[in-house]
Specification:
A five-stranded antiparallel beta sheet has the order 4-1-2-3-5. The longest helix is centred in the first third of the chain and has 9 residues. By secondary structure, it is an alpha+beta fold. The protein has one domain. A hairpin with a 6-residue loop joins strand 2 and strand 3. The protein is built from two helices and five strands. Bound molecules: zinc ion (ZN). The site of zinc ion (ZN) has 8 residues, from strand 3 and helix 2.
């Protein structure tokens, strides 16, 4: 079971890229609803998270609803694929370049 936490709650990347589209392309899955276990909200965007139970410093995109994008709690995301966008140092500047 993957547990994650937001690194930038409610941060808006929409002017630079579409994280949800990137997640969908990289995971080969349609983004349908929130990744958090037992949450079925459809108002999703790509949330930026880190694993909360790991030394892994990578930042990942997973689909999250507006409520869970603003959460500071650890969230169980079941089997949702974590799509890496690199570590925290490199994740922000080159983000746009990774989306074709
Ligand atoms: Zn949710």
């Amino acid at each position: 079971m993957n547990t994650v936490k937001n690194i930038v709650p409610a941060f808006n990347f929409q002017s630079r890229m579409n994280p949800l589209q990137y997640w969908s392309e990289q995971s080969n899955q349609p983004a349908v609803c929130c990744s958090v276990l037992f949450c079925y909200n459809h108002d999703i965007e790509g949330g930026l998270v880190q694993r909360s139970n790991s030394n892994d410093k990578q930042i990942y995109i997973v689909p999250l609803c507006s409520q869970h994008r603003q959460s500071y709690a650890c969230m169980e995301i079941g089997n949702t694929k974590l799509i890496s966008i690199g570590n925290i140092a490199e994740a922000f500047a080159p983000l746009a370049d990774k989306v074709k």
